[in-house]
Amino acid sequence: MAKADHKNNITWIPYTVAKARSVAYLGDSEFVEREYFKGLAARQIGCRCERFETPKGYSGSGPVDPNFWRKPDDLISRAGGILVINLHWLTVKGDSAKHIDGSAAYGIKIAEHDLVRLNLLPPDDIDDDVDADVDFAKVWVPREARVLKRAGKLDQVKTQTELADLLVAVGKKKGRRIAGRDYIRDNLTKWGLWPISEIE
């Protein structure tokens, strides 16, 4: 359940709820997790927690500290003659996160408006008019095209119309309200989606 901070006009939502909504919106769990970590580490996504535990001698400031979310530089170490690479500096389980340094945050909540601003959640003011569909397409189509490219589903696409048709079909399958094929096709180059090799 989202909870509003009336003093600062911020709606705080549990991490798992926010992530589930972002995945439903964008359709790619790994992309969402990566963008959350990147936004939290850059202080682009507001964060707080109900409880924060630290090991003895800890000097950080918890999950509000970008370093909690940032991958440490010293993940590579040597144990005797063996090179050890720790890929799991942060373990997120439910609404809790445990850092490799032993600190742990419980009951993590993040600022909903920051996720909307970063296009990780849909805009709140989408209604039934065409302009809303067009604005939504500017956000959703490029993200969905990246997901499709990573999955290898654009390898056989030869024309802009084919790509636009595929994106409209995927949008309908996911229950998204999306602008028409012609609008999408006419904006593929502008959005950096054509030629397909331009999609990052």
Task: Describe the model.
- The chain has 200 residues and is an alpha+beta fold.
- It folds into two domains: 3-115, no CATH class; 127-198.
- It is built from seven helices and ten strands.
- It has helices spanning 15-26, 29-41, 66-69, 112-117, 130-150, 160-173, 181-187; strands at residues 3-5, 10-14, 47-48, 51-53, 76-79, 82-85, 90-93, 96-99, 104-106, 109-111.
- The strands form three sheets. The protein has a four-stranded antiparallel beta sheet. Strands 4-9-8-7 form a four-stranded antiparallel beta sheet, with no helix packed on it.
- The longest helix has 21 residues, at 130-150.
- The relative contact order is 0.13.
SSE map:
Layout (H helix, E strand, L loop, with lengths): L2 E3 L4 E5 H12 L2 H13 L5 E2 L2 E3 L12 H4 L6 E4 L2 E4 L4 E4 L2 E4 L4 E3 L2 E3 H6 L12 H21 L9 H14 L7 H7 L13
Antiparallel strand pairs: 1-2, 2-10, 3-10, 4-9, 5-6, 7-8, 8-9
Radius of gyration: 20 Å
Average pLDDT figure: 77
Counted by DSSP, the helix tally is: 7
Please state roughly what percent of the residues sit in beta strands, choosing from under 5%, 5-15%, 15-25%, 25-35%, 35-45% or over 45%: 15-25%
Net shape: elongated
How many domain modules? Answer: 2
Q: Give the N-terminus to C-terminus distance in angstroms.
A: 35 Å
Largest sheet: 4 strands, antiparallel
